[in-house]
Amino acid sequence: MGDPTRTLELLWRDSLPSQAKRGPKQALTVTAVVEAAVALADAQGLDAVTMRALAGKLGIAPMALYTYVPGRAELIDVMLDTLYAGMPRRKPKGRDWRSRLEAVAHDNRALFTRHPWLADVSTTRPPLGPGQMAKYEYELQALEGVGLDDVAQDAALTFVLGFVESSARAASDQRAARLESQMDDGAWWETNAPLLARMSDPERYPIASRVGSAAGKAHGAAYDPDHAYAFGLERVLDGLAALIERPRAPRGPARRPARKRGA
Amino acid sequence: MGDPTRTLELLWRDSLPSQAKRGPKQALTVTAVVEAAVALADAQGLDAVTMRALAGKLGIAPMALYTYVPGRAELIDVMLDTLYAGMPRRKPKGRDWRSRLEAVAHDNRALFTRHPWLADVSTTRPPLGPGQMAKYEYELQALEGVGLDDVAQDAALTFVLGFVESSARAASDQRAARLESQMDDGAWWETNAPLLARMSDPERYPIASRVGSAAGKAHGAAYDPDHAYAFGLERVLDGLAALIERPRAPRGPARRPARKRGA
DNA sequence: CGCAACTACGTACGTCGTACGTAGATTGGG
DNA sequence: CCCAATCTACGTACGACGTACGTAGTTGCG
Question: What is the pLDDT of residues A154-212, one digit of tens each?
Fold first, then answer.
């Protein structure tokens, strides 16, 4: 990422008092630049967002971009926050925490689906912009009033979002591998099966062979992102349920004894 | 990553029948190249593993590397598989599945700690090398005999490993941000607090302000990777427990009705 | 022995982000 | 009102990077 302070000013540019400036007016706006960059990334991936390509799309010289944005890293920061700002904000407060959290997960997954290049960006610790802020506020609502203290609330949300990002990244990795090798999973397997069969005999790897081929047959591929997401989300929510719906005990150990935290 | 078939041959190079070759013998071995690359990545990060730098370290010309490895992408594939091959393989079969899985998670986390550049690599779907294979076989043992069918066994392991990678990546992102901004969390906060205070008033973002500052105070930073890992791992295991230790019911719905899989 | 195959490597190309300097437009202060 | 301060836009250029390509030299098989 880029220089944090400079990025902060950029992110909050709309809320910031814009003092009158001396020189000529800018032909474009930061927002327009960011939107063009997002469109470019959506269409051709993050690698296609080069300063030259973006400038060409906007009809300006490459170096003119630097009057809008300090550098490529900061541009990407703003792209991310812009997307966050545009996420849906429903009001599903009436239902149970589980469906609320599920909705949060789905919305985030949808964002990764719509903008696959997000998988190439560090979304865990982006600079704190207005979009991120509003997103955080909104998503925390899903966990309000379920009996978690503030620290646990934050940790739980981080946990859910981390899972969604992780599965989105796995899906993106698979997509990239498929694109690169120019063949689908079936063709890949056909090409490499002979070699693999000779290498990975079921005697050396009995469980791996059994489980691996079972999973492969079930999904029609070595890895099924949709199934991994559906499976994982259930586990994530069940895991949080064990924390939230733990039998009320004002003090003392819960059903299971407390567990030491490993290194 | 690189060309799959060529990479496979490279990965299984030790098990493959090496037919006698015509020309002069190679001065180095693929293994030596890979080990040097790992050392370089450990010391200075994955970006520092340039073909020129690696060649310099090995005392050969940059282009000579291409006689050992088809390209940089394939080199990284082999680096990853080499690390997998060297992971510890204990025999904790006696204990319960939970501590077995916990050990698997810890071992993987330790690998990310020892080699932080792994966070920059797609570890979810690497080419199937001997290291990956042995790792898969070993880690599946933790889930043998707990009553999961083969497909669920694979999904459960993927789930656990995905979590570990996700938290490792978050930790790595934070480390990178710290390095780049040249200041620790305290200094960053001091610098940017005035700006942030003006932007993010607690009236617009009440929950975020409350929870965010509580989490910040508890960890002494905006994000605590160790806590996120400890918290998350408990949830991961609890979530799997809900699947594994589900009350035996030969057929029909479990305690909760089956859930539809979202898009 | 001769030739095919292989290693090692030097040069060079096309890509990238962006530092730097400059020309021209704009506007606030005297 | 004017000019100096200040900002925009941009051209050129630098130092990375991965790696395509061609060549010289070495080895071992037939």
Answer: 999 999 999 999 999 999 999 988 887 777 777 777 777 777 777 778 889 999 999 99
CA distance A9 to chain B (A): 8
Domains annotated on chain B, with CATH: 4-84 (1.10.10.60), 91-244 (1.10.357.10)
CB contact under 8 A, A159 and B205: no
- Reduced to 3 states (helix: H, G, I; strand: E, B; else coil), residue B21 is coil
Of B108, B106, B102, give the one whose Cα is nearest residue B86.
Answer: B108
Spell out which residues of chain A touch residue B176, defining contact as CB-CB under 8 Å: 1, 122
B210 contacts chain A (CB < 8 A): yes
The neighbour count for residue B183, using CB atoms within 10 Å, is 16
B22 touches strand C (CB under 7 A): yes
> How large is the average pLDDT for residues A101-122?
96
CA-nearest of B170, B160, B182, B179 to B234 is B160
Our measurement of the distance from residue B111's CA atom to the centroid of its chain's CA atoms, rounded to an integer in Å, reads: 8
DSSP A224: -
CA of B43 to C1' of C8 (A): 28
The answer to whether the CB of A30 falls within 8 A of the CB of A68 is yes
Distance linking the first and last C-alpha atoms of chain B = 28
Could you tell me which of B91, B225, B235 has the C-alpha nearest to residue B160?
A: B235
Average per-residue pLDDT in chain A? Answer: 88
Longest Cα–Cα distance of chain A, Å, equals: 76
The chain A residue lying nearest B217, using CA atoms, is: A151
Q: What is the pLDDT of residues A209-253, one digit of tens each?
A: 999 999 989 998 888 999 999 999 999 999 999 999 876 554 444
| A141-150 contacts at long range (C-beta below 8 A, 24 or more positions apart) | A141/A93, A141/A100, A141/B207, A142/A92, A142/A97, A142/A100, A142/A101, A142/A103, A142/A104, A143/A97, A143/A100, A143/A101, A144/B207, A146/A97, A146/A244, A147/A244, A148/A243, A148/A244, A149/B214, A150/B210, A150/B211, A150/B214, A150/B215
